[in-house]
Structures are given as structure tokens and as C-alpha cells.
Amino acid sequence: MARIPYKIFLSEDEVPKYWFNLKAVMKDLPDPCLNPVTFEPCTAEDLSRVFCSDLVEQELNTTDKYIRIPDEIQSFYKMYRPSPLVRAYCLEKLLDTPARIYYKFEGTNTSGSHKLNSAAAQVYYAKKQGISKLTTETGAGQWGTALSMACAYFGIDLTVYMVKISARQKPYRKAVMETYGARVIPSPSETTEAGRRILAENPDTNGSLGCAISEALETAMKTDNCRYVLGSVLDHVLLHQSIIGLEAKAAMQKYGIEPDIIIGCAGGGSNFGGLIAPFIEDKINGNSNIRIIAIEPASCPSMTRGRYAYDFGDTGRTTPLLKMYTLGSGFMPSPNHAGGLRYHGMSPIISKLYHDGYIEARALEQSKVFEAATIFARCEGTLPAPESSHAILAAIDEALKCKETGEEKTILFGLTGTGYFDLTAYESYNSGTMTDYIPTDEDLEKGFATLPRVPERTGIY
Amino acid sequence: MARIPYKIFLSEDEVPKYWFNLKAVMKDLPDPCLNPVTFEPCTAEDLSRVFCSDLVEQELNTTDKYIRIPDEIQSFYKMYRPSPLVRAYCLEKLLDTPARIYYKFEGTNTSGSHKLNSAAAQVYYAKKQGISKLTTETGAGQWGTALSMACAYFGIDLTVYMVKISARQKPYRKAVMETYGARVIPSPSETTEAGRRILAENPDTNGSLGCAISEALETAMKTDNCRYVLGSVLDHVLLHQSIIGLEAKAAMQKYGIEPDIIIGCAGGGSNFGGLIAPFIEDKINGNSNIRIIAIEPASCPSMTRGRYAYDFGDTGRTTPLLKMYTLGSGFMPSPNHAGGLRYHGMSPIISKLYHDGYIEARALEQSKVFEAATIFARCEGTLPAPESSHAILAAIDEALKCKETGEEKTILFGLTGTGYFDLTAYESYNSGTMTDYIPTDEDLEKGFATLPRVPERTGIY
Questions:
Q1: pLDDT of residue B1
Q2: Given CB atoms, is A180 within the 8 Å cutoff of chain B?
Q3: What residue of A is the nearest CA neighbor of B3?
């Protein structure tokens, strides 16, 4: 076997031509999403009022394990993919660990994260359907940037509702999106009923992903030839993100590498779901002891402290009901610096896998996360996104456990993006003014009180 | 021949192990740098008071065409190199040109530019010599960021004098450098005699690379076990940057590609010199008709409107005298947004090659440069640095000429970096408030009046 290089790149020929549909390999499927009025499972027709029809088909597809990536999306992917699988030789040396650490680095494109993988797909399908306008929300700004890039490429008009706190923390994100031609509105705003209602209740709100989703949804419903697109949580987004795991697995297989532990940060769950998709099948089938760990911020602990229940995806309570780990759509996350992880719920697929015991979850505090980020930046070069740094800290923890036990485990983690637009957060850490916010049980109870009451059902969904 | 992929990556084995020394292939060498007191050519001893001894040796080496890259630097390079050679399929399609456009993209590392290539080398040699502290200046912030990354990796203390206007335009650059452990001081400052003198004369100055160099030099000379490092202009910096051209040439040769035109932006000339290094030899020998074009900003036109004369490298008039195209060390460039190109002089090697007719030069205005940057970002994905965008505009112009003539020329340009820290500039362009500054002849005369009087010499240098 050849010596493993610092970076493993697949050639264009080796890049996967299919996405991996996690649901097709799950023993038990997630409970279906429900129409919030009838409490009946959503039909394709229900979903098509909001989403493009190809995406609805993907959302409801539980049988096809591989779904072909259309040529146009493959062409788009070639602009910035394959992303490198990096052997963290320098980090290993610094930690003096027998563990072998790899990370799949999704930050080499201008959006600075994995979000472009699904943005490209969603915009392509919209274009194919003749849709001319899209709306969306963005938290950390990564999804909005990615979508504005894809919309510029495919020639689609875009309006982005950006969580107010993120717009303040990351002023230049707006400039990037505008450079790509998007219209950016801080949320909550006066442009929608949902926004006006939230502002009336709480004029000083920092906003949240949940609020921004409500506004983007409302605008899409009220605008001709317009659809809403979402950057995480939903099954079709995880499907598109499976390119991450597929590339990582192909790159590892080239060198005969098998991971013992896979670690990813999880906000809505899309990068995490994409990273683990092709690896978890063997575990589900009982043929693998691989450990799979989702990392969330202690300030927004949907898996580790949330409830597994039907809930709305947005604060405005307008989306279909999703069965997921949630803090309640009314939970207002504290203003931590990992905007992409500041969401009350978790992907139904990831929630189900966690509930069924295939996945572990861990919540980490942000000051320790930034300490890990700084260590990583200084020894591996790349300045990581705060979101990704949750995975870095967990990977370091696991590598240090290997140092204690002497085990030569292979750790793979997802480095979802770069921190070039998160320098306010780094400044706060560098100057020693960063604080950790952990919700009290009382805070959580307030969120849980906003969970909808869904009638018990028996029989077949 | 296989279809050319969007991105050509070399494998670790294919990455060059040697730098290319341009001076070893030049028919006529640049005039030597002079001691500003004696007007005698600088000796190794003169230079060693400021620079590390290995770098002095490289600076004066005119005979060895290939210089081996030490293993430690090769290891560092593996963290972020090889950089991709990209076929600009999308840009070609948009322009509807028969030209084939390639760019060598140096922005995939956290410093966001090619500067890391020389930073790694310079810090390594300092470490090897037992130096514990370094000082430098930074304009756009790319060099300072690169150096802070290399210093964090090799464990060296770093002070960066950052041009004041850049510190204001790019607040987050400082945070990145501090995250990597550097001390950042806006220049001119009160920490040096040179800074205090410049501030006394002109308290509202925006600063310039020339001022910042004076301050960094002074601090290095006055501090124990400290040396000064420079990110451009000097021959050893061009040597380190030859990795760009060597990788580009190796990647092109894999697919049998030969460029007809090479385009690079030129501030101090290091990326440009590095890009063209292995390509210009045949032209010097009369075996190639390749066109090589250096692009500078119309606001700081050292080659197109400057004089070929001995001049100081800094505003404080403390450096050795360099024979170069210059606007005069007293020339104060207008505050355009390409900080990396805002320097009064030009690398002596590039100056000589230009003077001898091997290179063309062109000056471009910034609003047109940002128009090209936006076109490029929207179709190729990557948000380019303003500096690099000068090369983009020139490449577009050449590709459009091919469209008129029907010629299928192969164009290679250097995409030196990303614009993630230049969003103030993009905001200015997006909002229509960007203006172009072109110095009047009178402005230039003021700069030329600051050129030193150097006695005429005959005989051997």
C-alpha cells in the first residue's frame, strides 16, 4: 500500500455519479411528515405547493438506494469538487496520538461550506421546472451564499432572509450574496406577516432560523412562479449531501482505509447525514462496529436534551410537522457563534437513527470549541468554521483517548467549512470575552411548551 | 489525449522538489543592489544584517537554475499544495470564445493567496538559523496572514506592520493574524522613529507599503535575534514563488498543453515572477513566441508610467538601492482596493525582463477590474481577490480578441487569491460608489523628485 498523502483527491472519473439515499437502507423509517391541519401524512401534492416537484419526489423516495446525479449538477460539482480528504498529520503529531485522523474538507469553495452541494441541486431542479424565483433563509450565511452562487450560475432570482444576529455578526456575508446577485433581508423583517407578528411580540429579537424560514416560506407562497428552498433538515437535502460521504469513502478505499469513528457537527443534520450516509449501512445491517457521533452546541442541544416529537420546522408554525428531536419551535437559542447549529430541531432521518441507537450525540461548549479551532488553525493551517470546530474538538478528544489506551483508531471527521466570515467570533475568543450559554431546564421547558399537540395515531401511516 | 478536466491536480510525487532561479537563465542580469551609503554593490555581509543568511545566499545566487526545496518546506507545502490548475470552461462558454483559458489558483489556503509559498520558506530558514523573532509589513494583509501561519507552524514570534488604510478596509485580517499568534500594528505607528517621522510630516496619511517596510526594518535592526522578512520584490521571494509556475507547467505538460499567453497581476512582482519563471526561458533563448503580460493598477503604474532607475524599496529611504521600474519611494499611491498592488516599485528581475522586451505591461482601472471580478465570480464560482482580478480582466480581453480573430489561443493566468477579506471593496462596487484614481503627470513628477541621485558608474559591478 502506498504511503498515504496529506490530501487525497479523486480524479473526475472517480467522483461519484449517484447520491446515496439513507432511507433505502434504514430498517425502520422515520415517521412521515404530517400536514399540520389534517395531521395526515403529507402527500406529494401538499409538498409541491412549496417545493419543486423533483425535490418532493426525492423527499418521499424510500426505496432507491442510489439516485443518479443529473449531468448539469455533475458539471456544477466539477467547479469545486471533489473536495480533499485530508490526513491530519500535523494534528496527530501535535497530539502525539496513535490515532489516525482524517477530515473531509468542504470549505474550498467561495460559499465556504458544504451547502453548495444541495444548493446546486435545488436550483437546478427549480430551473428545470421553469421556476424563476426562489426564497430561502440563512443563519450563519453559508446556505445563503451557496444558494446565491447556484442562482447566479443557473440564472434564478433569489431573496434571502438572513437571521438578524448573523447579519450583524457577519456583515460581509451580505456583500458576498449581493455580489452574486441575491436580495438579502435581515429577519425578522417587516416584509412578511410572520415577520411583523414576531417583531410585534419581541421587537428586540435576534431572530432565529425558525423565524427566517417562516418569512421565506410566506414570500414563496405569495409570489408567482416562486418556490422555497431549505438548506438542511429535509431528507432530500441529506440526499444531496451524501456526495460528501461517498467521496470520502471512495478516497479511503483507494488506500484501504476504514474509519472506526466518524464525527460530524449537526445543526439541521445535513452535512452530518451526508457524511455518514454510505458508512452507516453496514452498521444498520449489524456488520460493523463503527461509532458515529453527532456534535451539537451546548447552547442548542436538540438531541442531547430535546424531545423526540412531532414539531414545526419554523417558529411561525407553518411547515409540515416533522418527527424529530426538538427543543420546540418556540425555543430561542442564545446567540452563540455557530449560527449554522442554532436550530431547534434535527433532521428526521438523523433523529430516527439516533433514537434507534445507531448514532451517539454529544453537546460541547463554545469556548472549548474555539480553543480547538485555534489549535487546529495553527497546526493544520486552515481556519475552521465555528460549526466545524465542534467536530474538531470531538475528534481531538477521541484522539487523546487513543493516546491513553494506545489504540490506533482511524477517525474521520467532517470539516464542513472555513471561518473567514466568523472573525467577530474569533476576535471575541482572542480577547477573552467569549462566554458560554447553556440553557437552563426552565429555558428548555419554555421551548417544549410550544410543541404542537398531535393526536395519537395507530395503524398504518 | 484525455479530455482535460476542470481541475488538474498533481499528485504528491509529481509536485516539484526544486525552485526555479530566473536569474540563472537571463541573458543579462539585473544591475546589482547598491549599498545606499557607499553606492557599492551590496555584499552578503551587508544583507545579512537584515536577512537570514540562507536567503541572502539565494538573493545573490545567479548561477544555479534549480535550487532544492528543503524537506521541511516540502512538508509544509503538502498542507495546502499542490494548488489546482483550473480550466475556465464556464468563463469560456460565457465569453463564447475559441480561446482556452486556464488559471493557476493559489487561494485555497487560509492566507487566501500565493504569499504562503515564500512565508513558509523564509520562516523555515530563520528557524534553522536560530532566529526567534521576525518583523514584516503587510499591505492587503495577505502576506501578514501567510507569515503568521508559517510562524505559528514553526514557532517564531512575529510583529506585523499593517498599512493603515488596509487595516481599516480589512478589519478581520487583523483577527486572523492574531488567531495565528501575531502582533499587528497599523502603520505608520508611534513605535518606530520612521513611523513617528512620517506621522509628523503627514498625520492623516493612509500609510503605504513603503512606510510599513521602514518600520518593520527598523524594529528588526533594533531587536535582539530578530530579522526582517519581505513578501515580494526581492529575488529570493521570486525564487520561492516559482513553485507556482513549476506546478502549472507540470500540470499542463500532463495534458500536452502549451500556453500562448501568460498573464499575471504585478505589485512587487513575486507571484508574477513565480508564475512565468519556468515558461520564459525558451523565450529568452529565442525558442518561443509566448506573450507574457504583467498587469498593474492604473492608480499605481510603476511599469507603464514609472522610470527605470535605482531607488529605495521603502519610504523611509533605508533599504539598499534597487534598480527597478519605480514611481519614486515618495510616491503616495491613491487608496485603491488592490492593496497588494499599491507599491511604488517593481521586482528588479521583472523590471529587467520588461526593460529587455521579454514582458509586456498593461495598467487597468479598478471599476473595470471589479466588473470582471463579478463576472468571474458568478460563472466560475470563486470570489477573486481584487489583485487577481486585474489578471482576470486582461485574460477576458485577450479571450475576446480571440473571438474576433477566431484564434484558439491558450491563455494561462494567475488567480493569486480570494476576495473574502475584500468585501468592503465589493460593497463599494455593488453600490456604485467605486471610483477610479489615476495619478496625473504632476503626481508622478512629485514621486520622481524623490528618486535618489546615484553616481554614474562604469566598469564592472
A1: 52
A2: yes
A3: A12
Specify the CATH number for B49-66+113-228; select among 3.50.50.60, 3.40.50.1100, 3.40.50.1820, 2.130.10.10.
3.40.50.1100
Whether A120 and A148 have beta carbons less than 8 Å apart is answered as no
| Inter-residue contact B350 to B246 (CB < 8 Å) | no
Q: Do domains B7-15+81-112+241-451 and B49-66+113-228 have the same CATH topology?
A: yes
Cβ-contact B391, B262 below 8 angstroms: no
Domain spans, chain B? 7-15+81-112+241-451, 49-66+113-228
A-chain CB neighbours of B374 within 8 Å are 179
Alpha helices in B114-208 (DSSP H): 116-128, 142-154, 164-169, 171-179, 193-201
Which pTM was predicted? 0.95
Shortest Cα–Cα distance, A439 to chain B (Å): 28
- Residue pLDDT, tens place only, A6-20: 999 999 999 999 999
User: Å from A102 to nearest chain B CA?
Assistant: 13
pLDDT tens column, A360-417: 999 999 999 999 999 999 999 999 999 999 999 999 999 999 999 999 999 999 999 9
CB atoms within 10 A of CB A384: 28
- Judge whether A153 is closer than 8 Å to chain B, CB to CB: yes
Look at residues A384, A280, A212, A310 and name the one whose alpha carbon lies nearest to residue A65.
A280
Q: What is the pLDDT of residues A107-132, one digit of tens each?
A: 999 999 999 999 999 999 999 999 99
Give the closest-approach CA distance of B43 to chain A in angstroms. 36
B4 secondary structure, DSSP code: P
Other CB atoms within 10 A of residue A287 CB: 9
pLDDT-based confidence at residue A95 (cuts at 50, 70, 90): very high
In whole angstroms, give the CA distance from residue A221 to residue A232: 20
CA–CA dist A317, A53 (Å, integer): 23
- The CA distance from B85 to B7, in Å, is 6
A302-332 tens-digit pLDDT: 999 999 999 999 888 888 999 999 999 999 8
pLDDT at residue A459 above 70? Answer: no
pLDDT digits (tens, 9 = 90+) for B302-342: 999 999 999 999 888 888 999 999 999 999 877 778 878 88
| Per CATH, domain B7-15+81-112+241-451 is 3.40.50.720 | no
Q: Is A455 helix (H, G, I), strand (E, B) or coil?
A: coil
Give CA–CA dist A378/A381, Å, rounded.
6
